[in-house]
Write a structure and sequence with these properties.
Layout lengths: L18 H14 L3 H12 L5 E5 L5 E5 L7 H22 L5 H7 L8 H11 L12 H8 L5 H12 L1
Antiparallel strand pairs: 1-2
Length: about 160
């Protein structure tokens, strides 16, 4: 049979498949296995595709946008959609005073692994020369530039505050 039967849901950049293709594969697998939570989460993500637009210029010279085709949708586009859903789910969980939900776990399985405190500290030790800065907090820019969305800014700020004290 197909290898979709035992495929774990989720994605990472080391996979040989794009995030969009992995979502399609996982949707099909979830429907076959009657996994409604995964199916619904993926459908929510795919339901946001019309928000992915490209600027175009009409013959009249007016600027407008059009929806991206499936070939034009990048992994980063999809990661931004998923991050938006994760953020709103965390807000809902905070209001409910809950730690996590299956929906949140499904969404996070499609996001790249976040850098942990130890990863950030090791990178800082190897790459940041604090003698170049008046205050360790000024190193925040280069650190966040390196890690991008894979590091929590508040965690980096806390590490730098610990270094400065």
């Amino acid at each position: 049979m197909s290898n979709g039967e035992n495929t774990e849901y989720g994605w990472n950049s080391e996979m040989s498949v794009s995030l969009l293709d992995k979502l399609k594969i996982d949707l099909k697998t979830a429907m076959k296995n009657k996994n409604l939570n995964v199916r619904d989460a993926i459908r929510l993500i795919m339901g946001d595709f019309p928000k992915l637009t490209m600027p175009i210029k009409l013959e009249s010279g007016k600027k407008t946008t059009r929806v991206k085709t499936h070939e034009e949708i990048t992994d980063e586009d999809l990661l931004n959609i998923i991050r938006g859903f994760v953020k709103s789910e965390k807000t809902v969980l905070e209001i409910k005073k809950e730690e996590s939900s299956e929906y949140l776990n499904i969404l996070e399985s499609y996001l790249p692994k976040m850098a942990n405190r130890q990863d950030v500290q090791l990178w800082i030790k190897g790459n940041i020369d604090f003698s170049q800065y008046k205050s360790p907090m000024q190193a925040m820019g280069p650190i966040m530039k390196h890690f991008g969305k894979l590091a929590d800014g508040n965690m980096v700020k806390q590490i730098l505050q610990d270094i400065s004290s």
